[in-house]
Specification:
The two termini are 24 Å apart. Strands 1-2 form a two-stranded antiparallel ribbon. The mean pLDDT is 78. The chain has one domain. Helices cover 76% and strands 3% of the residues. By secondary structure, the chain is mainly alpha-helical. It contains 12 helices and 4 strands, in the order ααββαααααααααββα.
């Protein structure tokens, strides 16, 4: 058992090193959320005003941007599988006693660790946006971010299991990521949209990841009017996380099966 954990950690540590060493990826991972925050937050903030008493549009969108960063990083984690396949490194990993499931889990843990680092850095902006932080809130946030990232990475790994080139992977994931993000409640409450869009948003598992992070930041009472409700029931943070975990578990199992058949 200790050998399995060690193997998973080695794969995860390699993902972390690659992220730190690739300056373009490191820069873009922080630049893109800030661009969205500035353009959408500053651009629509004055027009939309307060979402609910005590919460303006910038404060509403900030947790969504953090969730978007986590989701994009988790899904793009699959590109390392494609990179390893292209350059032949994947064959060296496959002959190790770790196994396919261990490799996939290591990739997921690596992506989740990177997400925790990204979110920790982005928390610097919270006081500027008049969002108060506490130690308990930060701990809750980082735990939820880690769980969401591990779960959503299953989608990226599933796509990567079928891709032979990095260009193909990036094209497919961009087609997948943008609709999922825009329909996940990052930029607008999912309860205040046309019925057809609300239905799609509520079967989108990313919606529940965004909602969980937003509730942690804004508090349950402030976020109650903005949170996801199913048949009149307002989802709690725990319920949101459970939905994402179930979805991620199914995707991870399919990804491992697909990866095993391809290699």
């Amino acid at each position: 058992m200790s050998d399995i954990f060690r193997g998973v950690w080695v794969v995860a540590y390699r993902e972390l090193l690659r992220f730190i060493q690739e300056r373009s990826r490191l820069f873009s991972s922080f630049a893109m959320p800030l661009v969205f925050l500035v353009i959408f937050g500053a651009g629509f903030g004055e027009t939309i005003g307060a979402m609910v008493p005590g919460v303006n549009y910038l404060q509403f969108m900030y947790p969504g941007i953090i969730a978007m960063t986590v989701v994009m990083g988790a899904i793009m984690s699959g590109i390392s599988v494609v990179w390893d396949r292209e350059f032949g490194f994947l064959k060296e990993i496959l002959v190790s006693p770790l196994g396919r499931s261990g490799i996939m889990l290591g990739k997921s843990v690596g992506a989740a660790t990177i997400s925790v680092i990204q979110v920790t850095v982005m928390l610097i902006l919270a006081p500027i946006l008049n969002i108060s932080l506490s130690i308990l809130m930060i701990l809750q946030l980082l735990v939820v971010v880690f769980i969401i990232s591990v779960s959503i990475s299953g989608l990226g790994l599933l796509v990567a299991a079928r891709m032979k080139s990095q260009q193909g992977f990036q094209l497919v994931t961009q087609i997948i990521i943008m609709p999922l993000i825009f329909l996940a409640g990052v930029f607008f409450p999912v309860n205040n949209v046309p019925l057809w869009m609300e239905f799609i948003s509520k079967i989108n598992p990313l919606t529940y990841g965004v909602d969980a992070i937003r509730q942690i930041f804004l508090g349950h009472e402030a976020a109650a009017a903005l949170s996801v409700s199913i048949f009149g029931h307002t989802m709690s943070v725990l319920e949101d996380v459970l939905v994402v975990v179930v979805f991620g578990g199914i995707l991870m199992l399919i990804a491992i099966w697909s990866f095993s058949r391809q290699e």
